[in-house]
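Before relying on records like the one below, remember that each one covers exactly one chain. Contacts with other chains, cofactors or solvent are not represented anywhere in the record.
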Amino acid sequence: MHRPVVGIIGNSHLINDEYPAHAGGTMNSEAVAQVSGCLPLLVPADPKLVSVAELLEVCDGFLLTGGRPNVHPEEYGEDETPAHGAFDRARDAITLPLVRACVERGQPFFGVCRGFQEVNVALGGTLHPEIRDLPGRMNHRMPPDGTLEEKFALRHVVRFAEGGVFHRLMGAREVMTNTLHGQGVKTRGARIVIDGKAPDGTPEALYVAGAPGFTLSVQWHPEWRAGHDPVSRPLFEAFGAAVRGWADGRRPWALSA
């Protein structure tokens, strides 16, 4: 029996600052294979190499990963500034139409960090270039030094809406998460429901209202220790169930209705 396929969106990367590559974190593949129970397939997110139509046909679901490059502000009608950081326009050209297609088809996707921001932008939302510069906001960025364990350590609470999708999935109104992002949601896209926030008001969990499939997305990195963390595991398990449902012709995913 073949496992359903999850396309893991890769990021453009230079090895030794000179050799171009498409890269994906090992922990993303481990979470998809070991917790979601699906076959991880790294996607070179470049419209010169793949098309959205091909990806929708080959893959049963998609993991929209985190990444150092940010969504280009032109995608939400703003000018580029130094605060917006590095970009990956090829990834923008694949993921934004891919999200819109999946929403309409009911094909499952799970957005993580940059992926969370992509979902918002794909549906017409905007982003703050630097959360920590806003009055009253904490620094959500990854600590610059330390081990991976220290960088991915749990750093703040996320509070979910009473009775919302994430509350029901987790069985808790509040959870502890890591935080490794500089940008964040400024205005919500059409049909975007912000279902969880950090104590400083930063949006941390969302889904697409009325979408016929799994659209859950989070601003933190649940792929870290996904098989053991009590917050990460139910997310990847639910995503895997949704992907299997799509592959078997069963939809929608119940909690996202």
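The longest strand covers residues 192-197.
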